[in-house]
Amino acid sequence: MKILVEVLPEDIPEVRMFPSSVNCPLARALQRCELDPHAWVGNTLAHVKGSIYKLSPEALAFIAKYDSLEPVEPASFELDLLKEGAIK
Predict the structure, then answer these.
(1) Residue 60 · residue 41 · CB < 8 Å
(2) Which of 28, 30, 71, 79 lies 20 to 30 Å (CA to CA) from residue 48?
(3) For 36, phi and psi rounded to 5 degrees?
(4) HSE-up of residue 8 (Cα within 13 Å, Cβ side)
(5) Is 79 helix (H, G, I), strand (E, B) or coil?
């Protein structure tokens, strides 16, 4: 199973906030679109509603660019489900 995550302009903060695991644009988009205020993004995985998703190479490149303080644009990413959680 896959989910599509759309990072919108409002997900990209003007001021970089750390830890980026919960404040990067991809984490903010997951928090918004999956209705999980506790969603977070790690080095290669995303945790949403107790489920674990593998980040795509494009998502990883987006995060690396953001973490390097480079400008990022809105984008869409597909994430692969690795382990389904108990929370729905």
Answers:
(1) no
(2) 71
(3) -125, 100
(4) 7
(5) strand
DSSP state at residue 29: H
Q: What is the DSSP letter of 37?
A: T
Q: Name the amino acid, one letter, at 68.
A: S
- Average pLDDT for 36-59: 94
Condensed to tens digits (0 to 9), the pLDDT of residues 25-43 reads: 999 999 998 879 999 999 8
| Two tokens, residue 55 | 């980040």
Per-residue tokens: 70: 């480079």
Residue 33 burial class via C-beta count within 10 angstroms: exposed 0-12, middle 13-18, buried 19 and up = middle
Strand-pair partners of 83:
52
CA-based torsion, 54, 56, 60, 63: positive or negative: negative
What phi-psi label fits residue 77: left (phi over 0), alpha (psi between -120 and 50 degrees) or beta? Answer: beta
Q: DSSP string covering 41-55, please?
A: E-SSEEEETTEEEEP
